[in-house]
Structures are given as C-alpha cells and as structure tokens.
Amino acid sequence: MKKTLLATAIAGALGVSAAAQAATVYSQDGTEVDVYGRVVMAVTSGGEQRSGEQQDRTYSEVGVKEDGSQFRDLGSRVGFRARHEVNTDLSVFANMEFRFDAAQRDGGIGDTRQSFLGVESQQFGRVWAGNFNSIYYNAVGSVFDVPENAGWQTLGSVTNSSHGTSIAYSTPVLEGFQAHVQAKHYSGNNVEIGNEDASSTTSPSAAVSYTFQDLYVAAGYDRNRDFGDRGRVTAFDDLPLTTTESEGTVTEAANNDQAIWGIAAAYQFTPEFSGRLGYERNGSDDEMGVASQSITSVGATFDYGLGEVYGQYSRRSFGGEAGADTDSRNQWMLGANYRFSQPMYVFAEVYDNDFSADQTFRESNDGLLYTVGARYDF
Fold first, then answer.
1. Among 70, 99, 167, 300, which is most exposed with the fewest C-beta within 10 angstroms?
2. Whole-model pTM over 0.85
3. Contact at 8 Å (CB) between 2 and 115?
C-alpha cells in the first residue's frame, strides 16, 4: 500500500529505494540481505490518438493509435538490498533492482532499473555510486509521483542526468535540513575521433530538503547537460520526457542542455489528508530554437481508512520562439484505491491531457485515459 505523501517525499529525499514489504532473506555476521518488489497490472482504455512529432515522446510513425483498450504492466520489479554494519556509525550497502513485464509470457526479468553501492555514516552522511534515480527526482519530482499510471508531470526526469555512471552524496539531517549533490559522467569513449562529443563531460545536480513535523519542502537544480553522442544507454518505456523511438529501438534521448530547477512542498494537514504544491522550469523565453517550459502542479490525497482518494492538476506552459505554436496545456488526474490487505490493493484512475495549441507542433485527438488495475508489494 502506498505510504502517506509526506513519508514518501522524505524517503525520496534520503535517496532510499523504499520497499515497505521487504523481507530479510539473509542475516549473519552483521550482513543483511532483503528481497522486495511489486507486481502491477492494469487495463487501460481511451487516451489520445496522436500523430506527428510528440512533446512527451517522439515517434517515427505518423498516426500512432494509442486509445484502444490494453492489458499492460505498470512497472513491476524485483530487487535485492544488502547492508553490512562496520561499526555503530559506519555501514556499507548495495542494491540491485530489475524490471519485468508481468503482463507478458516473455516478459522475464530484463532491464536493470537500479544498481549501486555506497557507504553511510550517521556523522558524515551517505555516498553512493552506480545506476539510480536522480537526487532531483528524489527531492522534488517524487512528491508528485503518486498515480499508478498517467498524471505525473515533471521536467526533472528519472533518467536524464542520473541512471548509470553517477555518484551522489547526501549530508546527515541537520535540524531538519539535508543537502544532496550528484554528478553523472558521460564518457567520450567509442565516439569517433574528431567528433565534438569525443571528450568526456559531466552533468551536475543539487538539491536541499527540509522537514519539520508534518511539512516537507525541497528545491533542486539539474544542469541537464546535452551529452550528444556520449554514453547513450537504453531507457525504459514507462518514463516520461526522456525517450525517443526509432525503428523499434528505444534509447535515451539527449538532454536539451537547458538547466532545470524546481521546488516542491508537501503538508500532512491531518492524519487522513495531505496536500502538495510544485513548480519547475527549464530554459528561458529568449533562447532560440528551444522552447522553455514550466510546470505548476497542485495535488491532494485523502485516506478514507480502507484506501485513498488522490488527484492532481498541472499547468504546463511553453515560451520562446520554439514554443510559440504550443502555448500551454492543462493536465489532471483523479484516482482511488481499495486495500484488500497491507500489501495488495486495487485502483482506478482517470487522466485528461487537454493541450491548447494550433496543432502546428503537436496534433492530437484528446480523450480521457481510464486505468483499472491491481498492485501487490512484497
């Protein structure tokens, strides 16, 4: 079952891959190994039937049909977490997490979602390296990562400046404050000599979070550096704003080299009701050839005892010469779930993508997207 919004945000800020139902399968000589995961399957129907170049994803086909009913996986995964206490202050840890498609016969364990190792000290903080969610997402974007399917809007993606070849550091929590820094390395190896992308580069990001009783506030920055031909890696189908598709191959899209910054806040008004606010922006209106973007979001969750009712609204605006034909977009979602037991619940969601444009940049037949499914956490 989902945690309260504030608890989820705090876990994200700590850089922890939360798994409430994790089971310890090994414990000896100070070393513990947990196994955790989730199975999420749903039936979707409706949505938009899109054509031409897309804002969220770019398709080589024209006239892509997406509004029919479909039985699909929504992010099933399995993972292993290991931890060893060196002494009362110092511990070392490692994590391996894999995706699989629970809705397909041939959807066996495949993509490595997260794989990292590190050192943690209560006195000096936490350092980890490898393949993991960005600290920008952990601190800012995760506050609105509430829906099981569509309806989560963020400019700071999970992958753009994080997954793979990254190193991060988080300070200890000091009077509610915690700072986070990260750098992703893009290697120029295997790029043709003489290519302007043959040299290595890094893309830094930083965030700061503050927690006081029922309040959580965070601000983040992601340089979002354009890595060109360096270090292209496979991306995942269910992540927004990060992938292109060409001839059936999905690869990580190049960042647009426009820095991203954002703020987010969550407040637990009562044990049953929580709210959240967020604002993100990248680019600027006077930049030629790249549309600046901003997203303003508001959301709330109500726990009615046997489950939750949740919803959020986002206003997405575009600026600059490249965004002149796109103007703005209103997006909202509303959902509810019912808990059979602590690990398992069913859910239903509706999402609407109302794009206001003169169709030069994007053509779409807007329609409600319905999702009904079930999730089991272990």
1. 70
2. no
3. no
